[in-house]
Amino acid sequence: MRLVVDLNKCQGYAQCAFLAPDVFAMHGEESLVYNPRAEEELREKLAHAVAACPVQAITAEGPAGPGHTPGEPGQERSDGR
Ligand code: SF4
C-alpha cells in the first residue's frame, strides 16, 4: 500500500514511529523518514499510526479493501459540469 506523509503538516510528534516502527522512524529530533510503500501486512499498524497522528499528516492508500482510508480528509473532488 502507498503511504504519503505531508511533511508540511508533520510536527515530529513521533506517534507514528512509536506505533509502526517498521514504517516510520525519526531521524534526529524532528525529521521523519518513512517507507512510502509499506507492506500490506502492516496495514493494521498503519491504521493506528494514521489515527494517532495529531495533525492528520499521514494518508494511506492501497489496494483497497472495503471501507474507507483511515484519516483521509474529504478531499475527493469531481469535476462535474
Ligand atoms: S505522528 Fe504525524 S506529526 Fe508525528 S511524526 Fe508521525 S506524521 Fe509527523
State the end-to-end CA separation. Answer: 32 Å
Number of strands: 4
Order of helices and strands: EHEEHE
Q: What is the CATH level 1 assignment?
A: Alpha Beta
Percent of residues in helices: 10-25%
The total of helices stands at 2
Low-confidence stretches: none
Strand portion: 15-25%
Based on secondary structure, the structural category is alpha+beta
Q: Quick check: average pLDDT?
A: 85
Number of structural domains: 1
Q: Give the CATH topology.
A: Alpha-Beta Plaits
Which architecture does the CATH hierarchy give at level 2?
A: 2-Layer Sandwich
Bound molecules: iron/sulfur cluster
Overall 3D geometry? globular
Function: Ferredoxins are iron-sulfur proteins that transfer electrons in a wide variety of metabolic reactions.
Pfam family, one: Fer4_13
Keywords: 3Fe-4S, Electron transport, Iron, Iron-sulfur, Metal-binding, Transport
Cofactor: [3Fe-4S] cluster
Comma- or semicolon-separated keywords:
binds iron/sulfur cluster; two-stranded antiparallel sheet; 81 residues; 4 strands; alpha+beta; Alpha-Beta Plaits
